[in-house]
């Protein structure tokens, strides 16, 4: 583990020994809390600069991140690329639609059409959000020159092949992630954490069944 995980530890963004419901729906004993990171703008700026340094020699015209966390990261990365390349690099984002795809609204499809695009994201567990964003960029006529995430939670399974574009991460934080039916934490009757992740929504849905 390297600099990014050190930053996350510094701002109290890492939780262990818990029972978390992740965005993907999987369960885990560990959690990376981006909401604890993003108020610390100097730290987020450092991370954006790390990504920008990796891609400063690529012909990037626009940086796109999937909502929500990717929005902030795309702005900081585009900011630092603009400074490094001494030309304006645009920043934008994709958003979920009713079918849980990542699509462009607000006219941002026009930002990526015909452009070389860097896709950024905070954490990947399954790679679902970034792969959906990559597909939307391509559908709008953009060329994805790379995908970069702050932290890859599953190095063995989240790869360039899964993402659909050249892929790298600044850091790795390997952690368990189980389907609900296979979750040992559920089998141990460990309480769901309702303060972090999607535990509150998960329990509300369970209560309706």
TrEMBL record:
Catalyzes the transfer of a ribosyl phosphate group from 5-phosphoribose 1-diphosphate to orotate, leading to the formation of orotidine monophosphate (OMP). 5-phospho-alpha-D-ribose 1-diphosphate binds at residues 96, 121-129. Its EC number is 2.4.2.10. InterPro entries: OPRT, PRTase-like, PRTase_dom. Pathway: Pyrimidine metabolism; UMP biosynthesis via de novo pathway; UMP from orotate: step 1/2. It catalyses: orotidine 5'-phosphate + diphosphate = orotate + 5-phospho-alpha-D-ribose 1-diphosphate. This is Orotate phosphoribosyltransferase. Homodimer. One of its GO terms (molecular function) is orotate phosphoribosyltransferase activity. Keywords: Glycosyltransferase, Magnesium, Pyrimidine biosynthesis, Transferase. Orotate binds at residues 125, 153. The gene is pyrE. Residues 35-155 form the Phosphoribosyltransferase domain. Its cofactor is Mg(2+). One of its GO terms (biological process) is pyrimidine nucleobase biosynthetic process. SUPFAM superfamilies: PRTase-like (SSF53271). CDD domains: PRTases_typeI. Belongs to the purine/pyrimidine phosphoribosyltransferase family. PyrE subfamily.
